[in-house]
Amino acid sequence: xxxxxxxxxxxxxxxxxxxxxxxxxxxxxxxxxxxxxxxxxxxxxxxxxxxxxxxxx
Length: 57
Known about the structure:
By secondary structure, this protein is mainly α. Helices cover 37% and strands 0% of the residues. It contains two helices and no strands. It has helices at 13-19, 37-50. The longest helix has 14 residues, at 37-50. 0% of the residues are buried.
C-alpha cells in the first residue's frame, strides 16, 4: 500500500472564475471542453511540484 499525504490548497475565487469555460458547453456532447490558460498552468505547476502525471493532477 502506498502512503498518501493530504494537501489542502486555497485558490482565489477570481482564479476559479477565470478558468471556467466561458462558452457554456457542458460535459456532454461531442466537442471536448476548452480550458483556460490559468487552469492549465495550475495543473502544470502541481505536476512539477509533486512529480505527478497529468492524469493525476
